[in-house]
Amino acid sequence: MKRIEVGVGIVVGLLLFLFWQGVNILPVLLITALLAAVFITNQARQGGKNFVIAGCGTEERPLQFDDIGGQEVAKNELREALEFIHDMESIKRLGIRPLKGILLNGPPGTGKTLLAKAAAQFTDSVFAAASGSEFVEMYVGVGAQRVRQLFKQAKELAQKENKQSAVIFIDEIEILGGKRGQAASHLEYDQTLNELLVQMDGMSFEDEVRILVIGATNRADMLDDALLRPGRFDRQVKVDLPDKKGRLHILQLHTRNKPLADDVSLGEIAADTFGFSGAHLESVTNEAAISALRDNAQCITHEHLRGAVEKVMMGEKLDRIPNPAEKERIAIHEAGHAILGEYVQPGSVASVNIASRGRALGYVRQTQQDDLYLYTLDYLKGRIAVALAGALAEEKLLGNRSTGAASDFAYATDLAKQIVFGGMSPLGIVSQEDLPRELLHSTLSVIMKEEEDYVQDVLRQHEAALRETVQALQTKESLTGEQLRALLFAEAKISA
Predict the structure, then answer these.
(1) Given pLDDT bands bounded at 50, 70 and 90, which one contains residue 185?
(2) Tens of pLDDT along 320-364?
(3) What SS3 class is residue 211?
(4) Can you give the residue ranges of every domain in the chain?
């Protein structure tokens, strides 16, 4: 860099001197600009790129597998694969071919990058990280050049730190390793993938520096078959969303450095956050700490955590204030959802709100005691009933419906389609592609009408509780699940 600056200084000084002598320097400026453009283009074509490469000891506290929660299956499978690097003597004795690549496949935010870093620490390897988008540019050959450079830099750093192995982590590998032949107008993608395949084929058990390539993606279906064959990415590790036990472990990890009040129940928060990734849960604990700071609290309370869950799910509260008629309609709509939710699944409603968050004018947050991965016919019908209850509550108390139920109807329709395509409707087992649209429509209408009748019957039985819930929401703007259940229990006692 210094030599470039000195050269530029000399050229500028020479041009000023010539100008002072009365020489026409315009042709010289044109030639200089042309040479500079050629130099910059050549640098870009060479693809000079320094990837993020580090030894395991460069962090203050190296990341261990124990620091990653909610992925016990993935960690165990990854540890087993890494033993091929860790225990070389057993590998030689048993004649095992070492693994060259491991593919981490799962939704965003589930900890794929953290697992790769922990793998480098576990094997005492240097860690090289790159993203698939860093390899492909407009210049032909740049991607292949950068693949070679990545492997070269990893080997050089390992030798410099006297380590025998290196872990190369490629995030978003579907960009680099997508199916060949799909980008017909630009063969740079294919050349880059071909170079990665060549580099992996050239990796040997006898190399001075043993390299393990770890790829991460949430679109494994896009990867080229040649990349996934044995001898390249030998093993695929599923990194899925954590279950309730895993979410509790993640919350415990992220609250180690945070003061929690005595009323905090991380188990309840874990149960409330079905479908959250590790990144979501980290955001929940961080938002709870921010709320505690805003309230000048010494500790993070359970209410801070519950508010953080809703903020991560729905967004920040808005200052949108509906007029009194709209506020009443919103309260009726959400009260209908809440009462049917509690009737269908007792104890499931966590909170009812008519304060605007994100695109929602109001919302009901429901939880479940156990994570569900299979849905029965009764469960799906119950969810449809809850979705329809908002509009039907409006119709019962106000005499008409509103456009606020559009997303509810779309959700209910999707659930009804699951019933049909799951073979649980009167049609029996059907082919989704061959089912006539008219027959599908009529079947969905029958399912919806049956649930409408059911919801209207439930609302008729609990009209008093519905009106009391609406009144309470208009006064307080939100009710906890316990407060809602108290209203329903009081109505039940009066009815008895």
Answers:
(1) very low
(2) 677 888 889 999 999 999 999 998 988 888 888 888 776 778 888
(3) strand
(4) 52-238, 244-314, 324-495
pLDDT in tens, 432-469: 888 999 999 999 999 999 999 999 999 999 999 999 99
Is 52-238 in CATH node 3.40.50.300? yes
Q: 35: pLDDT confidence band, cut at 50, 70 and 90?
A: low
Residue 31: is its pLDDT beyond 90? no
pLDDT value, residue 336:
94
DSSP secondary structure letters along 399-415: SS--GGGHHHHHHHHHH
Query: Among this protein's residues, is 268 annotated catalytic?
Result: no
DSSP state of 160: H
Contact 417, 448 (CB under 8 A): no
Measured CA to CA, the distance from residue 456 to residue 474 in angstroms comes to 23
In whole angstroms, what separates CA 474 from the centre of its chain? 35
CATH tag for 244-314 (out of 1.10.8.190, 1.10.443.10, 1.10.8.60, 2.60.40.10): 1.10.8.60
Residue 313 in tokens:
């799910």
The DSSP result for 292-352, as a single string, is HHHTT-SSB-HHHHHHHHHHHHH-SBP-----HHHHHHHHHHHHHHHHHHHHHSTT-EEEE
- Statement: residue 53 has pLDDT above 80: no
Task: Name the DSSP class of 477.
Answer: S
Give the position of tokens 């006297």: 162
- Distance, CA of 69 to CA of 245 (rounded, Å): 9
pLDDT at site 58: 42
Residue 103's SS3 state is: strand
Structure tokens at 233: 């990415």
Strand order in the sheet with 478-480: 363-366, 349-353, 478-480
CA–CA distance, 52 with 171 (Å, rounded to integer): 12
Beta bridge partners of 165: 210
Q: Which residues of 358-382 are buried (b: 16+ CB within 10 A; e: fewer)?
A: eebbbbbbbbeeeeeeeeeeeebbb
Q: Answer whether residue 126 shows pLDDT above 90.
A: no
Cα torsion through 3, 8, 13, 18, rounded to 10 = 130
Q: Among 174, 282, 334, 491, which one carries the catalytic annotation? A: 334
Strand duo 233-238 + 165-171: pairing: unpaired
For the segment(s) 324-495, the CATH number from 1.20.1420.30, 3.40.630.30, 2.60.120.620, 1.20.58.760 is 1.20.58.760
Identify the DSSP state of 111. Answer: S
Average pLDDT over residues 71-100: 77
The span from the CA of 101 to the CA of 234, in Å, is 6
